[in-house]
Amino acid sequence: MLKLYTLVLLLIFTIGIKAQISLEGLFDEPKQTADTLYFPFEDGIQLIVINYYDTWERRVAYKEASQPRGMSWAAIMGPALKNVYLFRNTAGNIVKAYHSISDGKGLKGMDYFNADLIYLYGLSDFTEYNGHLKYYDLNEQVGLINTKGEVVVPAVYDDIRRYQDFDGAWEKLVIEQDVYFGLLDSNLQLLFPPIYRCSADSNYYGYPEHNILNGEFIKVFKNGKCGLIDESGVVQIEFKFDNIMMIHDSMLVGYVNKVVFDPNKYLWQNVQGCVVFDKNFNQIADLNQYDQLEYNGIKRFIVKKDNLVGVVNHKGEIIIPIQYDNLSLQNGDYYVTKDNKSGMISLEGKVLIPIEYECNMYFYDPAIYVTKNGLIGVYSDQYQLIAKPQYMQRYWEMGKFMLIRADGSKGFVWHEKGKSYYQSPEGEVVKF
Questions:
Q1: 138, 171, 296, 431: least CB-packed within 10 angstroms?
Q2: pTM tops 0.70
Q3: What is the arithmetic mean of pLDDT over 293-313?
Q4: What is the DSSP letter of 55?
Q5: pLDDT at site 31
């Protein structure tokens, strides 16, 4: 092995080195070792890697196990040796050679025959793409080189990385240039150039695989507007929205104003218009006529117009007339108020509790407590009237809700062994 190191170093540092230097005798009996990798011949070219740096790292790690912490690697082992990348033909002549050394950014090296500054970032980064490929960096631009020493992707990009596509595979590559991205296929052919962005934020590169919508399409930005493309770059939804979001069952919404998203309630708010698309990108609803919208994850939109609210579905059809002062999801349905009165309406628009009670409806499992003319009544959580408004007070005591009439007589509501019960002051018990 010492003979190997000596010969390679002489090879690299000899002044006036030429491309046709004989390797005869150097690798007569090639075999994988801890610090040398031999790749198969490809079209008469073999890549040989002398892993000085990798070996040095392993030795440092071994030394660190018995050395005081806090010491630098250089203090333990001295400076790292240079890795060597050799490309030879079947005659044993060098046709290409690089060397590299760590500089904190990557593996820095020199093409000795063309005198090009180059960074080599490893050998197995892209094993799926027509053989083993390596990054190289020329004048701070990134490209790819193959095991024959050939440039297969020129160094014109800011970054190249794997792309996880719609099926979870890594067969494509993301190319980035000036905060824009494009895609290469597994044959390194250009699917579309770097013309799209992952975010409207100019300082954010993002990851296009995180912007996959509808199972197989990418949400992208162009000229500050959001649209949808497929992996070949074909536009599916034009670039005219501030954002696009999946909402339900492969439906998409294109927003035309800023969205404030509440993850705790699965709502977006302060939206002043949107367009709804089906899974085939056909527009099925235009909701731009409303002053404000909220989406709640059930193919329903709470809409506001002229300071009144109602509900429309994903097709724009009115489910609850736009005539209420306030409306919100509660107990899986809509709690509504109008003219200082409140009630409950189902997702389908059916009145569940008449809008005739004071606006202090109280939801506490297993019942709903309503107030009318200052008196408290009880509904079940299934909206069955259990007790007409007749009580002056309610409070929790000893695992039961105690209800007190003006004359001091008491009723009770409680939950026991999966069942709910109401007992009137007269002793009648109702199970609900």
A1: 431
A2: no
A3: 87
A4: H
A5: 61
